[in-house]
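Bit of a strange request maybe. I'm writing a small parser for structure token strings and I need a real example to test against, not something I typed by hand. Could someone generate the tokens for this chain?
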Amino acid sequence: MERKEEKTGNRGVIERIQYIPFKMELALKYFYKILTAFEPNYRMSKFNEQVVIDIINYVHGSEGNYDNSKAIGFIGSTGSGKTLTMKAMIEYMKIDEVKCFCGARVIPFYPTEMMSIRQYQGMYETNGYDGLEATFRRFNIIVDELGAERGASKHYGNEINIVEAIIEERYSRGNITNFTSNCTEAELEEKYGDRVYSRMKEKTNIIEFLDKDWRLDK
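Reply from user aminoacidic:
Good idea to test on real output. This should exercise your parser:
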């Protein structure tokens, strides 16, 4: 392993460790095996194959199309493979227990929590901010189905925008917040406002999944 500092918005906060060498052809086979373990009927398209190649480079801390120190945000229509690819990315990262330097610490870089935005709403509505503290604290998480929340979240009369609360708090702590969403970038900006969208954009590689619902071809 060798240390390599990426020139990004997270420079000085996160320093990736390069996991090299690796062979892309073999890595693709492993990643596809993980994808089909989750969903046996999955078929990789030319577009999704390029996304997987980019994710593999990202996982290994190698030069590629994504900023290695930022989070990953998959946007696109239902059934295009966003959540499935996120799940596969976690499992692929765990093969080598991918880590990074954060200040003076060496810590896991892979996500340690993945829940839907509605689950986070439920946590707040049941226990207030105390229910979200572990989520605020975790270094790397995935928020699935961002944009599918059911209006404002309420706890004993206190009303919040759950996405704004998670993004703002985790941004202030310098944590990695990956997400999937059926919204476009324009819809995310309109839904959450300039301030929240700007933080998401600054800290996230936002990738649009262009494929149609692959499950319709089964």
